[in-house]
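Lab notebook: predicted structure, single chain.

Context: the supervisor wants predicted structures on file for every construct in the current expression panel, including those that have not yet been purified. This is the next one on the list. No modifications to the sequence; it matches the entry in the shared construct table.
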Amino acid sequence: MFSQACKYGIRATLYLSIHTNEEKKAGVKEIADALSAPQPFLAKILQLLSKNNIISSVKGPNGGFYLNAANNDLPIISIINCIDGKDVFNSCVMGLAVCSSENPCPLHIQAFAYRSGLLYQLKYQSVREMAQRVQKENLKI
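Prediction complete. Output recorded below exactly as produced.
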């Protein structure tokens, strides 16, 4: 459902939530290594997230990326909207050009129910809350 860029963006944000703060920052190489992600691709994603105030960054020798309290309080959906856009939840799961409640594809009803539940979770779960769940369940980001 989400692009590879969006998946990396979510994972990188969760990594930053768990491993950084305003005193301790992480560089692109550290994050890319932790996520097994291509460094140049991840750098572009991190720049986009920083530009849109989803993550924070500082330039310079002691610089890097981190999350502050405001970043941690953002809902997960903000990452998805920033990278994939708001239409990711509206497009047809089969890729048909015309798919709606009035003209549904064969999977429309099931996809609508799934997406509605997922969208609710993404709107009402903060970065901090999801990062805490990842830590608690000992999941590898």
